Fold these 2 entries.
Entry 1:
Amino acid sequence: MKLRPSFFLPLLASAAPSNAANLTSLVNLFIGTASGANGGSGGNAFPGAAVPHAMAKVGIDVSTAPRQAGYIHDNSSITGISLLHDEGTGGNTDGGYGVFPLFPFIGTCSNSSGVNIATCQPGIAARAALRAAGTDVASPGYFSTTFVSGIQIETTSTRRAGLIRFTFPASSTGSNYLVVDLTNDLGRSFSGGTMSISSSGHVQLGGTFLQSYGPSNYSAFACYDFDSVPLQYGTYQSASTSSPAVFDIALSSSSNMSLQFPFTTSVSPVQAGGLVHFNATQVVARFGVSMISSAQACSNAQEEVPVTKEGAWDWDAIVAASQSEWEDVLSRVQIDVEKENATIVELLYSSLYRASLVPANFTGENPYWESPFPFFDAMFCSWDVFRTVHPLLSLTSPREWAQIVSAYVDGWRNTGFIPECRANTKPGYVQGGSDGMPILGEFAVKYAEQAEELGVPTDDLYQALVDTAENTAPDWLTVGRQNTAWIMFDYIPTDWVDPSGDVGLPTREASRCYEYALGDFAVRQAGIALKKSQADIAKYANRSMNFVNMWDPNVTSDGFSGFAQRRFQNGTFAFTDPVTCSPVDPIAHSCARGTDNDSGFYESSSWEMSFFAPHSVATLVRLMGGNTTFVNRVNNYFAKGYFTAGNEPSFNIPSIYHYAGRPDLSALRVRNVVFTDFSTQIGGIPGNDDSGAMAALLTFHLLGLYPVQASTQFLIGSPFVSSYTLFNEAFNTETKFTVSGFDPSTIVATPPSGSRLFVKRVTVNGKDTGSVCTIDFEDVVGGGEVVIEVDGDADAAAARGCGPAGLPDSLETGGFAL
Ligand SMILES: *[C@@H]1O[C@H](CO)[C@@H](O)[C@H](O)[C@H]1NC(C)=O
Ligand SMILES: *[C@@H]1O[C@H](CO)[C@@H](O)[C@H](O)[C@H]1NC(C)=O
Ligand SMILES: *[C@@H]1O[C@H](CO)[C@@H](O)[C@H](O)[C@H]1NC(C)=O
Ligand SMILES: *[C@@H]1O[C@H](CO)[C@@H](O)[C@H](O)[C@H]1NC(C)=O
Ligand SMILES: *[C@@H]1O[C@H](CO)[C@@H](O)[C@H](O)[C@H]1NC(C)=O
Ligand SMILES: *[C@@H]1O[C@H](CO)[C@@H](O)[C@H](O)[C@H]1NC(C)=O
Ligand SMILES: *[C@@H]1O[C@H](CO)[C@@H](O)[C@H](O)[C@H]1NC(C)=O
Ligand SMILES: *[C@@H]1O[C@H](CO)[C@@H](O)[C@H](O)[C@H]1NC(C)=O
Ligand SMILES: *[C@@H]1O[C@H](CO)[C@@H](O)[C@H](O)[C@H]1NC(C)=O
Ligand SMILES: *[C@@H]1O[C@H](CO)[C@@H](O)[C@H](O)[C@H]1NC(C)=O
Ligand SMILES: *[C@@H]1O[C@H](CO)[C@@H](O)[C@H](O)[C@H]1NC(C)=O
Ligand SMILES: *[C@@H]1O[C@H](CO)[C@@H](O)[C@H](O)[C@H]1NC(C)=O
């Protein structure tokens, strides 16, 4: 990107100003933590302690599924406080990670002549305890809850370590125990591991567990130390695999003890771990985590939570450091928190928070290859996050984004393909395309000139794109694309047996075709930005238009003609009712990845997926019959309930009216979607937060922007705040957006007639851009002032269209010019 230095407003410091409000206090970590059971919204948000892009995500785990992030904001009993979690994901309803939980209880494990099993309950079912109502407290960097027994748990953390504080009631002195659980991860998938405990209470653990969304297992390690010397310590283990909840307990106060369970290829029901008996009323545990070894987990703990000169761990300093990292992230988007609507303020900062929890920085924790490049995990999945999370990072977190992009490229460097859904350090399942491609293409078009300085070798980035666009992975179930089919047919045929011998699921043909097309557009975009050959650029531009090959003009639904459909290798179409897999599908269908998916669409309907070609929406408008029919069709999609607010393929549709010259209708629709589907309540996310995908989407809606993936273009909406400032550290710019004529009465689902909702004019540093539909990245982060003038004349807005600069870019109409 080419910046215009004369418009720079230089910053005094490299980060956003420190005179900001206490933004962390505005974050509500419980949004999206309602149970997904019985049709609940199941945001699966993680409300525990974590720093931005943390590996350690410490939180409590409930006993009832679904519990993808461990926590559910209900009265379920708690079985532990564990060290690693996912954020907002779907996948295994039991959840991902949740390894090596600690659990406090009051009891007696031994008397002078043996073990009193009755009150010594380390097993997961027997120990489960209820929280006292209303005691869950969370803020960035801190989480606390209190059991009905009166035991309080608090935690705070760093990238790979942290502290957990247990405060027992005074009355239980002498009977305070902690369980250090080796075997019970959230998925109950223990497949072997070891634990040792020394007389000082130093515990080292390692175990192998199953991924939450993928075919593999992984190993994780931890290290625990306590701030007081135990009265007694020891081990417990299942008496037998057939009696996993009956325990042999061995306690000691002098010699080291250990447990060892050899690796098993099937999950073991065994329960085992350590028991530590304290006399103290308050016990602080320090933990470290690692994917390499328990020794490294211990050194991570020592490094990140050091012993201070006073000989203790500094709880307040760890909390303050985490909070200040969050303050830095949040302050990159600044608004007047006193003046703007309080609900919008809470939604905005809570969303910015969740959009920076993952991908997780596992640098130094890569078990598979040595590399000088960063290593990130929980890319869970690129399919979820390429639409909104990465474009948001591109605006305000360029340095973090560059590291994440570099980790994607390093995945290619070491495996031959851009990772798609790396989770628990292993490749997870591919959902549609290889959607790291639009992420890399977008980085190229936005940061080509700064890439080397930001640590991203651009020749490698481009080669990663080309290899992923051309080669078929032997296991395209977990990485890459079925390029054999894509290149041979220019679409993904149904009923075609791939002769390559490569292994994948031959389903989701139509969805994959649309996503492969966008992936090829990303190669074209990177080719231009990185000055690659005209032949490459033309080739990938051409291939990116092949989504039209899934278009069956003869299919009709609700009076609209032409829908994406599966297609046989002989070229004829296989009919799927376009309503199939929509929220109002009258027949139960599997709409997932498996071979039982017979619709051709992945977590979406033809009604919805037929709107997906961000790089050439003009083609869709043409195929669907022109502006008026297109607008009617979008309206019908919402009116009939085909909109799936809670899942990613729907993300682009509320703003798609722009492409028919009707940004006024997009503005109305976005207001409706935000207030119908999002709120500050525990059920305030319409579906899984999906690694912050929903959070980043809501952020864009509130700021009046929507990103066109793999490009520098943003669609302009009508902001929900009267002004905001974006800080970009790579360009050292601050860009202030002001809504001239901002009308608080539009902050509702259905703005009253005449309220000033519609964008009338946009100026960048005083100059009219000529468009009320789009704004370029260069202007969004270019420094200076963007003024968005709004008015309430709906007829004028409809007549104005996009303004003199015309419709948003589409390849078909010559957009995204070289
Ligand atoms: C921020 O606000 C929270 C909650 O009101 C408060 O506990 C915290 O001390 C404040 N932090 C700073 C740095 O002012
Ligand atoms: C938990 O909440 C549910 C639903 O609100 C209620 O039916 C149940 O009685 C509660 N259980 C306990 C133990 O409080
Ligand atoms: C120790 O506990 C066991 C098991 O409950 C019990 O049978 C035994 O009598 C106890 N011994 C003493 C000395 O309290
Ligand atoms: C006990 O464990 C500690 C810490 O792991 C270790 O330093 C010590 O050497 C061990 N002692 C014995 C006797 O194994
Ligand atoms: C788990 O890992 C082991 C050792 O790498 C391997 O033999 C086994 O097949 C794996 N199991 C699964 C389910 O991935
Ligand atoms: C346990 O704590 C109590 C109260 O602080 C104290 O009186 C007692 O001596 C302690 N016992 C041991 C074995 O340290
Ligand atoms: C990731 O961790 C590495 C190693 O500590 C650090 O240099 C880098 O800044 C971190 N990046 C992010 C985005 O957290
Ligand atoms: C792509 O290239 C093929 C072969 O040259 C050509 O037939 C086709 O029309 C091109 N498609 C587009 C959209 O340009
Ligand atoms: C659509 O229907 C017409 C009339 O039956 C037929 O000629 C044409 O081949 C069909 N097109 C496709 C793509 O199936
Ligand atoms: C195309 O293939 C499908 C599936 O095998 C078959 O049902 C259909 O009859 C074929 N059509 C033609 C024109 O060959
Ligand atoms: C659709 O609307 C846009 C914007 O108003 C206009 O430029 C374009 O010509 C229209 N297309 C057709 C086919 O009318
Ligand atoms: C903020 O907007 C919400 C949603 O329209 C509304 O319910 C609330 O009253 C507004 N708050 C204030 C302080 O105006």
Entry 2:
Amino acid sequence: MTQITPQPGIMDIAAYQGGASHVAGVENVVKLSSNENPLGPSEKAKAAFARAGHSLHRYPSTDHTGLRLAIAEVWGLDAARIICGAGSDEIISLLCQAYAGPGREVIHTEHGFGMYRISALAAGAIPVEVKERERVTDVGAILAACTDKTALVFMANPNNPTGTMISAAEVEKLATGLPPQALLVLDGAYAEYVEGYDGGASLVEARENVVMTRTFSKIYGLGGLRVGWGYGPEHVLDVLNRVRGPFNVSEAGLQAAEAAVRDTAWTDHCRKENAAMRVWLSDALAEIGVPSDVSCTNFVLARFASAAEATGCDAHLKSQGLIVRPVASYNLPNCLRITVGDEASCRRIVHAVRQFKNGAHDVSDL
Ligand SMILES: *Cc1c(COP(=O)(O)O)cnc(C)c1O
């Protein structure tokens, strides 16, 4: 028997399951399971990535100045308080590494993003799950769950996988009500999908206890490159920059992300296309008896009558080459999360769900 054991907490982690991308024996598959941008990245980002191919032997920038300045310029922020990471997942992990740990509590919501719990456990901390109210973040419940051990409070706004969002006033109430040792982490992975929303940047600037995380994986269409960023008060940046690896983001990633954030015309185009197709998709699904909450993101959380119906529909969609995301592990067993694809994909989804509702699965799948 080996005596080699990991730190306490590690074996409590259920490894993260990414969205599936293949169905055995089915061709012409459409992947709508990971909230990727169906329009892909900006052409300027692709060109910048290709140019970076000429200097692969060089180590990347350690201070990420070019990308930080571009983000600061586009969003009107202070470049000195921006940190870049290998996806926002790395920022989440750095926050846990730096602020959580044995004896400290990390709050996340009932249907919150899986990486909060994983990163908290990886740091040896205690994850604390707080109920939502009908799939919406409940600020009162979060505040009631705070103790003198609360180190971090994670909430995505808009949230994944629910797609719902709470108001700036509610978020401010949360930040104001936290105990003095707690840091609020506002995950803005879908912030760019909300017209006119700053992701919480102004709250970060007004306070000492709020950090915002953002990503290039969603609207910017660069999930394969792994680039994210965070914005926080000076004291938090000082801490995170001590923990961060010097070469944590590749040069190709930095260059592509810089071009992507500067191409605001493409981002605007993607936001508008997504908003139009999202309304079309959720309306069409509602008409065939599959309701969803109003989504502020690039996905729709489709609600079925039961877990069995959701599972059955998922199987039928798979048989049609349509991969969506079952969310039972997010305490939503009767739901399927469907990324808003291009028009053809949305039409295929609605067609297949209608077939399923009409009993097509009895004939073809069973
Ligand atoms: C997709 C997503 C992320 C982004 O992760 P990256 O590591 O930046 O790709 C972060 N938070 C939420 C809520 C997400 O849905």
